[in-house]
Amino acid sequence: MMRGESLPRAAAPFFGFARLLRHHAFPIAPEQVTGFMKAVTLLGPRSMNDIREAALATLAPPPDRHGEFDAHFRAYFYNDTKPSIEGEKDDETRIKDDRGTREEEDQTVRKEEGGELSSALEQLSTRDFQRDDDRLAAFRRKLSSALPARRSFRTVRTPSRGKLDLRRSLREIVSADGDVPSPLLRRRQTVPRKLLLLIDVSGSMKLHTADYLKLAHAAVQGADRAEIFTFGTRLTRITSALRIRDRDQALARAAAQVDDWDGGTRMGPTLLAFLSVPRFSSFARGAAVVILSDALERGDHAELETAIRRLSARAFRLSLATPLAGDPRFRPATAALRAILPDLDDLIDGSSLTSLTDFILSLARPAPTASTIWKRVS
After folding, report:
1. What is the pTM of this model?
2. Could you tell me which residues belong to the region Disordered (predicted)?
3. Smaller CB count within 10 Å for the chain: N or C?
């Protein structure tokens, strides 16, 4: 794609809008961007609707993403702080980020209907946490070394089994007046992958939320790159709060930041809102992602299916931990679970800290996919 710095000043906003869409995974080729700016030039334009029509005709967003396209158009050109992802204006999923300032980004989403224990009605409340025993101490100590690893682009010196560090080897030869010392070798570092926990704090998960937050605190304390979000009717990043070493203080800070305890749930729209923020979706890229939820989605599960498919494409491993799986009679029989099962790497028991910690510590070990396991069980 052309470089924005070389464009005329008047063309820069249109180039910027195309770049914004590319950041949100819209398939846009450089030729389409050029065509968009040429179309705007030919149209005049006389109104913002002309610009929108030119963008629709040349950037060609998929029909199922027209609502999202319109939301980004309003946010970019009108500075609309409450864009609608699906073109509706009734229900809202608010995004709350805890990075220093408590700034919020609002995302409006479509109303969901579904599981009997799930509700789209928002209830705002706060929660206090009591100190639990120290059963998570071992998990915290083992986590960093137990996470899946990847090869970094950074390199370190190694005495053997590495690639020749030609630049430093030549320096050694020059400093030794032409003598040939032992060659210097380097190898790529191996670093743990990111861990991303998405915690459902809706009313149907009320009995498990406290344990999940304790698990999240141990994860942040034990791993260098762990990210924690809560979701119900809103999306809240609580990673900074959980970096406080004292668990009581950390959970109290997290409790103060989350506004939608024990309320309704909009799982699909909330996950789409997470993916619509580039900085947030980057947390999932190449990460081990664990969703702690019963996945009782209300109504049409199309948005949940879309969100899980996109999240699976970004993640190294995508897992759903549901407390419902603690019942031996549990089967992924709901329409939503059947729809997302092919995109899940794991569908596991999330009813106890024991099962969750054991599973997270085993993420580096390969396992059959969720659909393979549950087909055997069924």
Report:
1. 0.64
2. 83-124
3. C
